[in-house]
Amino acid sequence: MRILGLDYGTKTVGVAVSDELMITAQPLLTIERKSANKLRQTYAAIEKIIEEYGGVDKIILGYPKNMNNTLGERAEATEEFKEALERRTGIEVVLWDERLSTIEASRILMDSGVRRENRKQYIDKMAAAVILQNYLDAASKG
Fold it and tell me: Quick one: CATH architecture of 2-141?
């Protein structure tokens, strides 16, 4: 059994996957698209990852709340993405507060010695790993 973590952005989706014991999250890849509305290939890529890893029974999707806990345009787009993903995969998708995940991911990359000009290629999948790890940590506590 595994859990997939997603960081859904306007032109990219960062992807992370848990280990089989659901203790740790590993960054996997970043799915890129040319337009914010062109999602067919994004869904297909996610379905392929689910097939490759087998046993994925839950998807954790970063939920972009504002710092004051309100929801904006990105949160609405994320909700629509969640519903479509559930329809296509038949897998439960859980929205998970992603506030500060990109900042934390950036800090991890910096601490790991990744040069500033190279961080862009890793940031989305690392943010997905941070979101998924936060979920795994919370789930293990209760």
Answer: 2-Layer Sandwich (3.30)
